[in-house]
């Protein structure tokens, strides 16, 4: 839902009611996961998606209906092949949607959630889906603030405690409680949707490839920073709106900025005097991905220099170089797609192979280790060997 919140926040601020459909449960090969959302606002304007197109027409009508009646509903869509014109998921999965009306008058907590997400502050939105508590009632939980109510003080207290625990883990899913928040009871189902601050993408080297990588990073939902020690290159006008541009030595900037297990680092400087000090710092951070541009010969020379800094083989094995997947990319935009593809594959445990040549589930659960599970194909884009 994060990607549609700017539009929802605008409707909300203007006093325009809208119907909000959120995926609260999935099974098998459902196309979108819990938390995916679609909204229908003024003049039947639609934003977002819950199934990639399979059931959006039916959801449009449901959203308009809940705005008209003021009552939330729960609807499940599954596979349908008996009637070619039936509403259902063609992929064979099943999704359950909570569709609820949102207005400033009836849901004062929604504004708190939208503002927190816009400000990159962590927040959890807890919404009743089933049970004696009012369906669609919402509670917004931040580390230091709570807004709204689920209808019972005990339920609010239990959900607040769980929401803050989920926020630390960035987890989204259903929880069950008794009517007053009793544990080990399942009368009330509550959907907890966590909005952790967006992950960071740090791009080092303000070359032409960096602008393309910054654009695709922002498209994927990263908070992008471009860093270069050369002020002539680190010009904000060369980069997309929203990207932070920093003039500093890369290793010094990285040492002083925040990284975590979701951060991705793209090192495009292609110069040992920048790369080696930077990578000595980078390989000691918890970053999920560290990709470095350069030929195979450059990479071998770089590895020798890095060993001289005291880095061990386990640390050096984290380097993804030559950077990106083997797509045959040439232009900056194509190379950016190649790098983004490698980041996505690493995040979800993909192999980078064509799906036509694979078997099993298309959509994967997030791997626990965050490390690649398959060897990377050779990158034929980089400079040829001498």
TrEMBL record:
A Pfam cross-reference name: XdhC_C
Ranges for region Disordered: 356-386
InterPro entries cross-referenced by the UniProt entry: MoCofactor_Util/Proc, XdhC_CoxI, XdhC_Rossmann_dom
Domain XdhC- CoxI: 11-78, 117-178
Entry superkingdom: Bacteria
Biased composition (Basic and acidic residues): 371-386
Domain named XdhC Rossmann: residues: 201-343
Annotated protein name in UniProt: XdhC/CoxI family protein
Organism field: Streptomyces pulveraceus
Lineage: Bacteria, Bacillati, Actinomycetota, Actinomycetes, Kitasatosporales
């Amino acid at each position: 839902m994060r990607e549609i919140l700017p539009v929802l926040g605008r409707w909300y601020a203007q006093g325009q009611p809208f119907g909000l459909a959120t995926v609260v449960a999935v099974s098998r090969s459902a196309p979108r996961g819990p938390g995916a959302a679609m909204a229908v606002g003024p003049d039947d304007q639609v934003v977002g998606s819950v199934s990639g197109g399979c059931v959006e027409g039916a959801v449009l009508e449901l959203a308009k209906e809940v705005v008209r009646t003021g009552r939330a509903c729960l609807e499940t869509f599954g596979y349908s092949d008996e009637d070619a014109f039936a509403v259902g998921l063609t992929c064979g999965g099943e999704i359950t949607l909570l569709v609820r009306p949102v207005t400033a008058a009836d849901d004062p907590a929604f504004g708190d959630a939208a503002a927190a997400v816009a400000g990159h502050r962590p927040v959890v939105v807890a919404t009743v889906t089933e049970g004696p508590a009012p369906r669609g009632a919402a509670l917004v939980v931040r580390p230091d603030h709570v807004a709204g109510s689920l209808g019972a003080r005990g339920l609010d207290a239990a959900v607040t405690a769980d929401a803050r625990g989920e926020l630390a883990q960035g987890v989204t899913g259903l929880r069950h409680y008794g009517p007053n928040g009793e544990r080990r009871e399942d009368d009330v189902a509550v959907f907890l949707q966590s909005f952790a601050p967006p992950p960071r993408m740090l791009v080092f080297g303000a070359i032409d490839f960096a602008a393309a990588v910054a654009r695709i990073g922002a498209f994927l939902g990263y908070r992008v920073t471009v860093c270069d020690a050369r002020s002539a290159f680190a010009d904000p006008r060369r980069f997309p709106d929203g990207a932070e541009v920093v003039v500093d030595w890369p290793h010094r900037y990285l040492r002083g900025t925040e990284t975590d297990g979701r951060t991705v680092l793209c090192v495009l400087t292609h110069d040992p005097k920048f790369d080696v000090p930077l990578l000595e710092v980078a390989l000691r951070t918890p970053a999920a991905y560290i990709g470095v541009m350069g030929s195979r010969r450059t990479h071998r020379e770089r590895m020798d220099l890095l060993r001289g800094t005291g880095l061990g083989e386990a640390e050096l094995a984290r380097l993804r170089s030559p950077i990106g997947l083997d797509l045959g990319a040439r232009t900056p935009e194509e190379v950016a797609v190649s790098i983004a593809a490698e980041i996505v594959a690493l995040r979800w445990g993909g192999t980078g192979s064509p799906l036509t040549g694979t078997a099993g589930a298309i959509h994967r659960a997030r791997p626990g280790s965050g490390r690649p599970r398959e060897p990377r194909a050779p990158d034929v884009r980089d400079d040829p060997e001498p």
